[in-house]
Amino acid sequence: MADVNRGDRPLSPHLSIYRPQLTSITSILTRITGNALIVSVLLIVWWLFAASTSEAYFDIANAVITSWMGDVVLSLSVFALWYHLLAGVRHMIWDQALMLELKSAEALGWIVVILSIALSALTILVL
Amino acid sequence: MRFITDRKRAIGMGSAKSGTDHFWRVKIQSFALLLLIPLFIFTVGPQLGNSHAEVIAYFQKPFPALVAALTIAVGMFHFRDGAQVLIEDYVHGLAQKITLMIMIVFSYAVAAIGLFAIARLAL
Predict the structure, then answer these.
(1) Collapsed DSSP state (helix, strand, coil) of residue B3
(2) What is the complex's ipTM, to 2 decimals?
(3) SS in 3 state form for chain A?
(4) Do B37 and A78 touch (CB under 8 A)?
(5) Contact B116 A52 (CB under 8 A)
(6) DSSP for residue B12
(7) Considering A2, A12, B70, B80, which has the largest number of Cβ atoms within 10 A of its Cβ?
């Protein structure tokens, strides 16, 4: 029975033994922001659906989306949106086999973090 | 002797089974969303909190309606393919198949509701 443990072995990449690094944190943030955006998509689709249904229904959705809870969700979503977009651009650069060296990869990470915060602040200010 | 080329024998045998199809699809979606998302933020964003009449009047214009419809459609396909990777990483076996089916059907439902709402507002 050489392979008695088949299927029950720990899977790579053994996340728990890694020291957090800029590259790993920016990578997992890409996944978290991308998937978390479904929350605001549902909120906005519901708002659009309410607008297309009746004024009374729209007033409910509009009140929810402009409440402080709605503001928090949408503000976080604006950041998630810009972050995920810029991280996507970073992947497009990497897909061309460019800037893959540790130094330039880390520089790209900082650019994504700083630019996404700046663009989010600008967006929230404008809207 | 088998009348089959080496290449033909190898197709579909990798761990992904389907080559770079998924990667390429996601990349095209990303490219489209790179333009659509900023447009969506600055067209739909200012409408949140406006009156019902203002919102209806706004989405009756072709450009905002098309931006919103395209963003919701492409965005939900992008979600489907991205969430698929997430599920494949953390859920396994039969639970994975069931989760994938629920997630994909859910993506289509959200896209349909969004497109229906925009069509109703715009037309």
Answers:
(1) coil
(2) 0.88
(3) CCCCCCCCCCCCCCHHHCCCCHHHHHHHHHHHHHHHCHHHHHHHHHHHHHHHHCHHHHHHHHHHHHCHHHHHHHHHHHHHHHHHHHHHHHHHHHHCCCCCCHHHHHHHHHHHHHHHHHHHHHHHHHC
(4) no
(5) yes
(6) T
(7) B80
- Measured over the CA atoms of residue B81, residue B86, residue B90 and residue B91, the dihedral's sign is negative
Give the residue extent of every domain in chain A.
Answer: 21-126
Interface test with A, best of B30, B41, B60, B76 (most A CBs within 10 A): B41
- Return the CATH number of the domain spanning residue range A21-126: 1.20.1300.10
Tell which residue, A50, A97, A28, A3, has the closest CA to residue B48. Answer: A50
Chain A nearest-CA distance from B120, in A, is 6
pTM, full prediction:
0.88
Q: Tell me the residue range of the domain where B73 lies.
A: 6-122
The domain total for chain B is 1
Could you tell me where the DSSP H helices lie in chain B?
6-10, 21-44, 52-59, 62-90, 93-122
